């Protein structure tokens, strides 16, 4: 499933991302010391405690596997034994000690086509083919300034990933989409927020903050391939103890103590990141300093969603399972703020980018039931997209405070968890859902949308894209 999506502004990503250096011995020791492996294996260890009686069967499976490999090599023994003796016999028959020795019947230096001599590498078809492959691979890895980049938080078969997708926008109107690279992350991702605060020096960066089932917030550098560690971690568990069947955790200073459900980066104050958690709290972080500056406790249940006001960047909106929406000014966190009661748990919310005083909130069982994501169009006033667990994406005209649905689509993404309009291509909508495949809808391809909002686009006519 795709749980969250974030657009990266055009031209920000490095054209040729760097490849990460392998972790040093000291870094590996630090990872082990931090207990990250132990935390990731907690569930496995509990299952292992219940499955101790299966050890004998597993040992038998190893014996069978060794003998099967030996049989495939034509060296199966006629002896049948059990336990460690059988494993020893199987390994002996594989003759691994002489694995690297060449068979005398093999001719190492033949006189076939491999002996042909070419006066130039350009004339050697084998080298030329290799050069072509390398050139194509380099071209695929290059990110052009005109390319759109989307980061997807994805889970599949207990593997948690950040996928960096490239959308090549061509003059023909067709979009070529592919995964540029991915990053394996340790915990199930729940939310993301792109940010450009220069965490590694310079003027700007290309980072994504990830909230997960863990109480920590990880910030990853999107310009590095094969990275194994985040460049920064905010909060988290510092120590985990087990006494008998009971477990207790010691958290880092000012850390959340439960899952991080929502993140919001402040575009005006670029070092500021807000986080919402299942621990009922909101925290305001200075990512440049790597510390929490403000903690807000005005909700009485899980805080699901937060958003900074586009026009008044000190103002923060939050929505909770306590069935309330609260607006607060970050400069006076002690003030109780302004509160609105709603009829169900808040799933998502968003400020209207075209007016300072309007926002929308999606509820678990509102008029549009089970809406799990909302996104305002950054170019066209009153155009709102919603995604739902009913597998549908709908586009709404909010003119005159009388919402009307002008288009709907089943993007075949499964239950929809995330919808997001692009800032650079305002009518492209990224969609992520339970099927785990990123979808992009050019909303102007719908006649109703084009008729109502086409004048806000630079295009002269709608193009068919999906």
TrEMBL record:
SMART domains: WD40. Residues 252-310 form the Anaphase-promoting complex subunit 4-like WD40 domain. Residues 1-27, 33-52 are annotated as: Disordered. It comes from Quillaja saponaria (Soap bark tree). Residues 33-43 have a biased composition (Basic and acidic residues). This is Transducin/WD40 repeat-like superfamily protein. The lineage of its organism: Eukaryota, Viridiplantae, Streptophyta, Embryophyta, Tracheophyta. The keyword Ubl conjugation does not apply. One of its GO terms (biological process) is rRNA processing.
